[in-house]
Amino acid sequence: MRKTRKMALLKGDTHLEHVPSIKQKALRINLNKHTYGTFAEIGAGQETVRHFFRAGGASGTIAKAMSAYDKDFSDAIYGIEKDNRYVTESRLRKMLSHEIDLMEERLNRDKHPDKIFFAYANTVTTIDFAKKFKGHGWVGIRFQMDPLEDYNEIVIHVRFKQNDSKLQQETLGVLGANLVYGAFYLNDNPKDLLKSFYDNIDQDTIEVDMVDFSGPRFMYVDNRLMSLHLVKNGMTDAVMFGPDGNNLLPAQQLYKKNILALRGSYRPVTRVNMEIYKESKKMFLAEKKVKEENTYIIFEITLANLRAEGKINERDFLDRAELLCSLGQTVMITNFQEYYKLVDYFAEYTKARMGLAMGVYNLIQIFDEKYYRDMSGGVLEAFGKLFYKDLKIYLYPLKDLQTGEILTSDNLKVHPRMKELYKYFKFNGRINDLDEFNPEILEIFSRKVFKMISHGEQGWEEMLPEGVSQIIKDKKLFGYSKRKHEKQAK
Predict the structure, then answer these.
(1) End-of-domain residue from the set 402, 419, 441
(2) How far is CA 83 from the centre of its chain?
(3) Are residues 276 and 128 in the same domain?
(4) What is the pLDDT of residues 410-454, one digit of tens each?
(5) Do both 121 and 257 map to the same domain?
(6) Same domain? 182 vs 318
(7) Residues β-bridged to residue 455
(8) Which residues are 37's β-sheet partners?
(9) Both 193 and 337 in a single domain?
């Protein structure tokens, strides 16, 4: 990276006391003598750049505004995608790269030493004529904060919720203007930048379900944490990231896939967690309809679980994410406390077989009526959503610590009013006990292990899968302190 100037050219107030209007945002960009860039928009008119033209003073800001609607023209400019699709992350990034390259090629840096270049782009599809598919899109900006600094990039994916294409276009234009403004004036606080996407927009009009920050200004930004804030801020109900820590688009990853989801706290991952994973995976893949190459296995953590001790502890969240990623797992953070909502969400993307792996305690909660009092159809509506899909539950036993009895689907107790409903699903093969389990580890619980680690107690290593304790020690996860453990050992 080239050495940057001591003072950024856009140094100054990063926010106003009140939320500025879109016109104020666009005008502030236009009146900054250093910003200069391109707007390339495909699929929903030129709604973003329109705000900058209308605000006034755009001649010093806009190098070019274009909309390559014709597919042949678009392919000639940005290249042909391998899957022949146009509303993709790959297409958006190609657009940003192409436009920045043209800026660098056509403008003499010696003649414009103080110009900081940017390229804004979007590629979207709005609601179809039948109003069955509401549409989605990719939106992004590549920008500098100093002429001698490398480029930064912000890429987001949006899903439209409005039922009118014109309204969707207008919402997209406001979102785009917010993104351009946020990139230049809120980049020092990515959390505020995320929230600013909804400035002057009703939150129920559009969903942001993926975000990616990169570049020198975002060197210390963990995109997994940004994903968490998307859910925390109510911008989406679920986010995903892969073993490499990079954010994933759920719709893209889950489309037409067989899905096996394992819900837990993973604070930390225990031998029990991994036994559930291995045994449920084995049973799920043994299903006739399931092929391993078309299967996605997800470790899910709910927002409610992250808030279990009050406020969300970001360090604690990242420790869980770091450990799961180190084990090669895909992680999903959701706002679905009830399982039927999770299944309903998966059903938006696939009609293939779905599986939920859980312990007996969780299954008993599913058959507790109190969780469905707010639903007009009560428990029957919830179970209709949960089980009408091609779903199976893989059940891990629970040891009663008082009696020593091991509870399975055969001897667990649900409320008397729920017995017949439970029997129906049980004997129709929707609820299945795991074929194998180790009775010697049934008393291992994440909360107990976490307490031992944070208090410097001995013996927690044996409760974790092979290699996990070393990861925790090497990366100092969950409050681990070598000095604290050595002190306890003495």
Answers:
(1) 441
(2) 24
(3) no
(4) 999 888 888 888 898 888 889 999 999 999 999 999 999 999 999
(5) no
(6) no
(7) none
(8) 62, 118
(9) no
Q: List, for residues 136-155, the tens digit of each pLDDT value.
A: 999 999 999 999 999 999 99
**What pTM was computed for the model?**
0.90
Average pLDDT of span 457-477: 94
Q: Buried b vs exposed e over 305-326: b needs ≥16 C-beta within 10 Å? A: bbeeeeebeeebbbbbbbbbbb
DSSP character string of 376-437: TTHHHHHHHHHHSSSEEEEEE-EE-TTT-PEE-TTT----GGGHHHHHHHHHTTSEEE-S--
Q: Residues with Cβ < 8 Å from 357, sequence gap 6 or more?
A: 260, 261, 262, 276, 277, 280, 393, 394, 396
Q: Is residue 296 within 8 Å of 258, Cβ to Cβ?
A: yes
Residue 475 lies in a domain: no
Give the C-alpha separation, 396 to 403, whole Å: 18
CATH code at position 400: 3.40.50
Residue 470 lies in a domain: no
Query: Where residue 214 sits, what CATH number does that domain have?
Result: 3.90.950.20
Residue 237 has a CB neighbour count (10 Å cut-off) of 18
Structural domain of 115: 22-221
Look up residue 79 and give its DSSP letter: -
- State whether 263 and 377 are in the same domain: yes
Instruction: Identify which of 235, 244, 239, 250 has the alpha carbon closest to the alpha carbon of residue 202.
Output: 235
Q: Which helix (H) or strand (E) holds 26?
A: helix 22-31
Element containing residue 166 per DSSP (H, E)? helix 165-185
Cα distance between residue 380 and residue 96, in whole Å:
49
13 inside domain: no
CB atoms within 10 A of CB 200: 17
243 lies in some domain: no
> Does one domain contain both 128 and 262?
no
Task: Identify whether the C-beta of residue 197 lies closer than 8 Å to the C-beta of residue 178.
Answer: yes
How far is 394 from 467, CA to CA, in rounded Å? 26
Buried/exposed 239-278: b ≥16 CB within 10 Å, e otherwise: bbbeeeeebbbbeebbeebbbbbbbbbbbbbbbbbbbbbe
202 and 326 co-located in one domain: no
Query: Two tokens at 196?
Result: 């600013």
Q: How many structural domains are present in the chain?
A: 2
Residue 261 tokens, joined: 């989801």
Distances from the Cα of 295 to the Cα of 272, 343, 350, 435, angstroms: 22, 15, 11, 20
Asked whether residue 320 falls in the same domain as residue 188, the answer is no
